[in-house]
Amino acid sequence: MTTVAGLMRASSLPALETRILLEHVLGWRRTELITRDDEELAVASVDRFDALAQRRSAGEPIAQLVGSREFFGLEFEVTPEVLIPRPETELLVEIALEQMGGLEAPRVLDLGTGSGAIAVAIAFSRADAQVWAVDQSAGALAVAARNALTLLGMDRPLNLLQSDWTCALDPALRFELIVSNPPYIAQNDPHLSEGDLRFEPRTALTDEADGLAAIRTIVQTAPFFLSTGGSLWLEHGYDQAADVRALLTARGLSDVRSKRDLAGIERVSGGFFTA
Fold it and tell me: The Release factor glutamine methyltransferase N-terminal domain covers which part of the protein (predicted)?
Protein backbone atom coordinates (compact mmCIF):
# COMPACT_ATOMS: atom_id res chain seq x y z
CA MET A 1 0.00 0.00 0.00
CA THR A 2 1.39 3.41 -1.02
CA THR A 3 0.58 6.41 1.18
CA VAL A 4 1.57 10.06 1.42
CA ALA A 5 3.71 9.23 4.44
CA GLY A 6 5.46 6.50 2.49
CA LEU A 7 6.13 8.73 -0.50
CA MET A 8 7.45 11.49 1.75
CA ARG A 9 9.88 9.06 3.36
CA ALA A 10 11.00 7.48 0.10
CA SER A 11 11.36 10.64 -1.99
CA SER A 12 14.89 11.79 -2.84
CA LEU A 13 13.62 15.35 -3.31
CA PRO A 14 13.64 17.96 -0.54
CA ALA A 15 10.57 17.65 1.68
CA LEU A 16 9.10 20.97 0.51
CA GLU A 17 9.33 19.98 -3.16
CA THR A 18 7.84 16.55 -2.43
CA ARG A 19 4.94 18.20 -0.62
CA ILE A 20 4.30 20.66 -3.47
CA LEU A 21 4.21 17.88 -6.04
CA LEU A 22 1.90 15.77 -3.88
CA GLU A 23 -0.46 18.70 -3.36
CA HIS A 24 -0.52 19.21 -7.13
CA VAL A 25 -1.06 15.55 -8.03
CA LEU A 26 -3.66 14.81 -5.38
CA GLY A 27 -5.40 18.18 -5.33
CA TRP A 28 -5.05 18.23 -1.55
CA ARG A 29 -4.23 21.09 0.76
CA ARG A 30 -1.19 20.91 3.01
CA THR A 31 -3.33 20.03 6.03
CA GLU A 32 -4.78 17.09 4.14
CA LEU A 33 -1.32 15.72 3.48
CA ILE A 34 -0.95 15.56 7.25
CA THR A 35 -4.42 14.36 8.26
CA ARG A 36 -4.71 11.82 5.42
CA ASP A 37 -1.10 10.70 5.26
CA ASP A 38 -1.97 7.03 5.91
CA GLU A 39 -4.63 6.69 3.20
CA GLU A 40 -3.91 4.37 0.31
CA LEU A 41 -3.29 6.32 -2.88
CA ALA A 42 -4.54 5.38 -6.34
CA VAL A 43 -1.92 3.79 -8.57
CA ALA A 44 -2.45 6.50 -11.20
CA SER A 45 -1.68 9.22 -8.64
CA VAL A 46 1.47 7.46 -7.50
CA ASP A 47 2.62 7.00 -11.08
CA ARG A 48 1.99 10.67 -11.84
CA PHE A 49 3.91 11.75 -8.75
CA ASP A 50 6.82 9.47 -9.67
CA ALA A 51 6.94 10.92 -13.20
CA LEU A 52 6.99 14.49 -11.89
CA ALA A 53 9.59 13.64 -9.26
CA GLN A 54 11.86 12.19 -11.94
CA ARG A 55 11.51 15.33 -14.04
CA ARG A 56 12.32 17.46 -10.99
CA SER A 57 15.36 15.31 -10.24
CA ALA A 58 16.52 16.06 -13.79
CA GLY A 59 16.32 19.78 -12.97
CA GLU A 60 12.97 20.84 -14.39
CA PRO A 61 11.57 23.78 -12.36
CA ILE A 62 8.83 23.10 -9.85
CA ALA A 63 6.80 26.01 -11.26
CA GLN A 64 6.73 24.40 -14.70
CA LEU A 65 5.88 20.99 -13.27
CA VAL A 66 2.84 22.27 -11.40
CA GLY A 67 2.08 25.00 -13.94
CA SER A 68 1.98 27.96 -11.58
CA ARG A 69 3.95 30.25 -9.27
CA GLU A 70 2.81 32.68 -6.59
CA PHE A 71 3.83 36.32 -7.11
CA PHE A 72 2.70 39.36 -5.13
CA GLY A 73 0.05 37.23 -3.42
CA LEU A 74 -1.43 36.04 -6.74
CA GLU A 75 -1.15 32.64 -8.43
CA PHE A 76 0.15 32.93 -11.99
CA GLU A 77 0.10 30.33 -14.71
CA VAL A 78 3.64 29.42 -15.77
CA THR A 79 4.74 27.58 -18.91
CA PRO A 80 8.11 27.09 -20.63
CA GLU A 81 7.17 30.12 -22.78
CA VAL A 82 7.71 32.56 -19.91
CA LEU A 83 10.16 33.49 -17.21
CA ILE A 84 9.20 32.14 -13.80
CA PRO A 85 8.17 35.10 -11.58
CA ARG A 86 10.68 35.61 -8.77
CA PRO A 87 10.31 37.21 -5.32
CA GLU A 88 12.92 39.90 -6.00
CA THR A 89 10.80 41.25 -8.86
CA GLU A 90 8.07 42.13 -6.37
CA LEU A 91 10.24 45.16 -5.55
CA LEU A 92 9.50 46.53 -9.03
CA VAL A 93 5.76 46.25 -8.36
CA GLU A 94 6.14 47.92 -4.96
CA ILE A 95 8.04 50.81 -6.55
CA ALA A 96 5.42 51.13 -9.27
CA LEU A 97 2.58 51.34 -6.74
CA GLU A 98 4.54 53.91 -4.75
CA GLN A 99 5.08 56.06 -7.83
CA MET A 100 1.39 55.82 -8.71
CA GLY A 101 0.33 57.14 -5.32
CA GLY A 102 -1.82 60.25 -5.70
CA LEU A 103 -2.31 59.74 -9.45
CA GLU A 104 -5.81 59.22 -10.79
CA ALA A 105 -6.17 56.49 -13.43
CA PRO A 106 -2.41 56.31 -14.06
CA ARG A 107 -1.21 54.95 -17.38
CA VAL A 108 1.40 52.22 -16.96
CA LEU A 109 3.52 50.34 -19.49
CA ASP A 110 5.21 47.01 -18.76
CA LEU A 111 7.92 46.22 -21.33
CA GLY A 112 8.68 42.52 -21.81
CA THR A 113 5.71 41.34 -19.76
CA GLY A 114 6.26 37.56 -20.05
CA SER A 115 3.65 35.87 -17.86
CA GLY A 116 2.11 39.28 -17.16
CA ALA A 117 3.10 39.04 -13.49
CA ILE A 118 4.20 42.67 -13.11
CA ALA A 119 1.39 44.18 -15.18
CA VAL A 120 -1.34 42.04 -13.60
CA ALA A 121 -0.07 42.66 -10.06
CA ILE A 122 -0.15 46.42 -10.71
CA ALA A 123 -3.60 46.29 -12.27
CA PHE A 124 -4.91 44.07 -9.46
CA SER A 125 -3.61 46.51 -6.84
CA ARG A 126 -4.83 49.61 -8.67
CA ALA A 127 -8.18 48.96 -10.29
CA ASP A 128 -8.18 52.45 -11.81
CA ALA A 129 -4.84 52.01 -13.58
CA GLN A 130 -4.69 51.76 -17.37
CA VAL A 131 -2.05 49.12 -17.96
CA TRP A 132 -0.34 48.22 -21.23
CA ALA A 133 1.83 45.11 -21.47
CA VAL A 134 4.05 44.27 -24.43
CA ASP A 135 6.22 41.32 -25.38
CA GLN A 136 7.83 40.17 -28.60
CA SER A 137 6.76 36.55 -27.92
CA ALA A 138 3.28 35.55 -29.03
CA GLY A 139 3.48 32.54 -26.71
CA ALA A 140 4.27 34.72 -23.71
CA LEU A 141 1.42 37.10 -24.55
CA ALA A 142 -0.99 34.17 -24.65
CA VAL A 143 0.06 33.21 -21.11
CA ALA A 144 -0.23 36.85 -19.99
CA ALA A 145 -3.71 37.07 -21.48
CA ARG A 146 -4.86 33.97 -19.58
CA ASN A 147 -3.40 35.29 -16.33
CA ALA A 148 -5.08 38.65 -16.83
CA LEU A 149 -8.44 37.02 -17.51
CA THR A 150 -8.14 34.71 -14.49
CA LEU A 151 -6.91 37.30 -12.01
CA LEU A 152 -8.50 40.52 -13.26
CA GLY A 153 -11.65 39.34 -15.01
CA MET A 154 -13.15 40.61 -18.22
CA ASP A 155 -14.00 44.04 -16.84
CA ARG A 156 -10.34 45.00 -16.24
CA PRO A 157 -8.46 43.81 -19.33
CA LEU A 158 -4.81 44.53 -19.97
CA ASN A 159 -3.85 46.26 -23.18
CA LEU A 160 -1.67 43.51 -24.65
CA LEU A 161 0.55 44.14 -27.67
CA GLN A 162 3.16 42.09 -29.49
CA SER A 163 6.15 44.38 -29.90
CA ASP A 164 9.92 44.44 -29.83
CA TRP A 165 10.08 46.78 -26.84
CA THR A 166 8.42 50.05 -27.91
CA CYS A 167 8.57 49.50 -31.68
CA ALA A 168 4.87 48.72 -32.23
CA LEU A 169 3.48 51.24 -29.75
CA ASP A 170 1.35 54.12 -30.99
CA PRO A 171 3.77 57.11 -30.97
CA ALA A 172 1.01 59.25 -29.46
CA LEU A 173 0.82 57.16 -26.28
CA ARG A 174 2.18 58.65 -23.07
CA PHE A 175 2.58 56.96 -19.69
CA GLU A 176 3.08 58.19 -16.16
CA LEU A 177 5.09 55.05 -15.42
CA ILE A 178 7.10 52.55 -17.45
CA VAL A 179 8.53 49.41 -15.84
CA SER A 180 10.54 46.50 -17.17
CA ASN A 181 12.28 43.33 -16.09
CA PRO A 182 14.36 42.85 -19.26
CA PRO A 183 16.92 40.13 -20.04
CA TYR A 184 20.05 41.24 -18.20
CA ILE A 185 22.26 38.16 -17.93
CA ALA A 186 25.41 38.29 -20.06
CA GLN A 187 25.60 35.68 -22.82
CA ASN A 188 28.62 33.91 -21.32
CA ASP A 189 27.31 33.77 -17.75
CA PRO A 190 27.61 30.17 -16.49
CA HIS A 191 24.32 30.47 -14.59
CA LEU A 192 22.48 30.13 -17.92
CA SER A 193 23.43 26.46 -17.99
CA GLU A 194 22.56 25.78 -14.35
CA GLY A 195 19.41 25.11 -12.32
CA ASP A 196 16.00 26.35 -13.41
CA LEU A 197 17.47 28.74 -15.98
CA ARG A 198 18.18 25.81 -18.30
CA PHE A 199 14.44 25.33 -18.78
CA GLU A 200 13.34 28.97 -19.11
CA PRO A 201 13.18 30.93 -22.39
CA ARG A 202 16.69 32.12 -23.15
CA THR A 203 15.44 35.32 -24.76
CA ALA A 204 13.88 36.33 -21.42
CA LEU A 205 17.18 35.78 -19.60
CA THR A 206 20.00 37.07 -21.78
CA ASP A 207 20.44 39.76 -24.42
CA GLU A 208 23.14 37.58 -26.01
CA ALA A 209 25.56 40.40 -25.30
CA ASP A 210 26.96 42.01 -22.15
CA GLY A 211 23.71 41.98 -20.17
CA LEU A 212 23.06 45.68 -20.75
CA ALA A 213 22.01 45.69 -24.42
CA ALA A 214 18.26 45.43 -23.77
CA ILE A 215 18.52 47.96 -20.95
CA ARG A 216 20.31 50.41 -23.26
CA THR A 217 17.53 50.06 -25.83
CA ILE A 218 14.81 50.65 -23.25
CA VAL A 219 16.59 53.63 -21.70
CA GLN A 220 16.96 55.24 -25.13
CA THR A 221 13.42 54.62 -26.39
CA ALA A 222 11.10 54.49 -23.37
CA PRO A 223 11.36 58.19 -22.43
CA PHE A 224 9.68 59.09 -25.75
CA PHE A 225 6.57 57.53 -24.23
CA LEU A 226 6.79 59.15 -20.79
CA SER A 227 4.61 62.07 -19.84
CA THR A 228 6.35 65.00 -18.17
CA GLY A 229 7.15 63.97 -14.61
CA GLY A 230 6.74 60.29 -15.48
CA SER A 231 9.30 57.72 -14.42
CA LEU A 232 11.09 54.68 -15.79
CA TRP A 233 12.13 51.78 -13.52
CA LEU A 234 14.21 48.76 -14.52
CA GLU A 235 15.13 45.56 -12.76
CA HIS A 236 18.76 44.56 -13.36
CA GLY A 237 21.54 42.29 -12.17
CA TYR A 238 23.16 42.43 -8.74
CA ASP A 239 26.25 44.22 -10.11
CA GLN A 240 24.65 46.46 -12.75
CA ALA A 241 23.16 49.29 -10.68
CA ALA A 242 25.96 51.81 -11.29
CA ASP A 243 25.94 51.12 -15.03
CA VAL A 244 22.16 51.48 -15.25
CA ARG A 245 22.20 54.72 -13.28
CA ALA A 246 24.85 56.06 -15.67
CA LEU A 247 22.69 55.14 -18.67
CA LEU A 248 19.61 56.81 -17.16
CA THR A 249 21.57 59.94 -16.30
CA ALA A 250 23.14 60.14 -19.75
CA ARG A 251 19.65 59.89 -21.28
CA GLY A 252 18.65 62.99 -19.34
CA LEU A 253 16.47 61.47 -16.65
CA SER A 254 16.56 63.22 -13.29
CA ASP A 255 16.60 62.12 -9.66
CA VAL A 256 18.14 58.82 -10.76
CA ARG A 257 18.40 56.26 -7.97
CA SER A 258 18.61 52.55 -7.17
CA LYS A 259 16.54 50.60 -4.67
CA ARG A 260 17.55 47.49 -2.76
CA ASP A 261 15.68 44.22 -2.49
CA LEU A 262 15.19 42.24 0.72
CA ALA A 263 18.66 40.75 0.31
CA GLY A 264 20.17 44.24 0.35
CA ILE A 265 21.06 44.12 -3.37
CA GLU A 266 20.53 47.16 -5.59
CA ARG A 267 17.94 45.43 -7.76
CA VAL A 268 15.92 48.22 -9.43
CA SER A 269 17.03 51.59 -10.80
CA GLY A 270 14.98 54.43 -12.22
CA GLY A 271 14.62 58.10 -12.93
CA PHE A 272 12.17 60.82 -13.95
CA PHE A 273 11.44 62.49 -17.27
CA THR A 274 11.22 66.26 -16.87
CA ALA A 275 11.90 67.53 -20.40
Answer: 11-67
Average pLDDT of the chain, as a whole number:
96
What is the model's pLDDT at position 212?
A: 98
For strand 107-111 and strand 226-235, is the pairing parallel, antiparallel, or unpaired?
A: unpaired
Q: Is 112 known as a binding-site position?
A: yes
User: Is 183 known as a binding-site position?
Assistant: yes
Pairing of the two strands 68-71 and 74-77: antiparallel
Write out the DSSP string of 218-259. Answer: HHHHGGGGEEEEEEEEEE--TT-HHHHHHHHHHTT-EEEEEE
Q: What is the pLDDT of residue 155?
A: 83
For the stretch 3-16, pLDDT in tens is: 999 999 999 999 99
Note whether 177 and 111 are within 8 A (CB): no
CATH of 81-272, one of 3.40.50.1820, 3.40.50.150, 3.50.50.60, 3.30.470.20: 3.40.50.150
**Residue 80 labeled ligand binder:** no
| Residue 202 per-residue DSSP state | G
Residues 162 and 158: their CA atoms lie apart, in Å, by 13
Q: Read off φ and ψ for residue 78, nearest 5 degrees.
A: -130, 135
* Residue 154 binned pLDDT confidence (cut-offs 50, 70, 90): confident
User: Does 116 belong to an annotated binding site?
Assistant: yes
Identify the sign of the CA torsion 132, 133, 136, 138: negative
Output DSSP code: residue 274. -
Annotated ligand binding at 184? The verdict is: yes
- The pLDDT, as a whole number, for residue 42 is 94
Percentage of the chain exceeding pLDDT 90: 96
pTM above 0.85, yes or no: yes
